[in-house]
Amino acid sequence: MYVPRDAAPGEYCGTITVTADAAKLSSVSLKVHVLSFTLPDRIAMRSNFGSLGGRLARQLGMDAASQEFAAVEDRYIDMLLAHRAIPSSLGDIWPKWTPEGGIDDSTSGQRLRSMVKERHVNSLCVPFACRPSSSCSP
User: In this model, does residue 103 exceed pLDDT 80?
Assistant: First the structure.
């Protein structure tokens, strides 16, 4: 449920119509009570929602490395952020690394900066990287 920032306080009633392939499946009555305050622009609660990335791609039957999946994942990220939930995956934000060249964030750095500065992402799930040639045991 999304309530616009400028919605007047009060009770709102309506109907949600569920459809598939242009056929009406059901209708659901809805009543929403809007309170007299507005949440701040900056997200204050640290959270980590959704299992995006490779898991989402598998569930959708898509290639996680494809541009098509990146566009779908961005829509999930947009929806979560619009509802003040920080997604567990922020898309392609990780820099590339090679032993010869070190860290290269030329393709990922701007996206991560944008997520933090413009979209107010305040938590990040950092994956544990383990090279097959090394032991990952403590």
Answer: yes
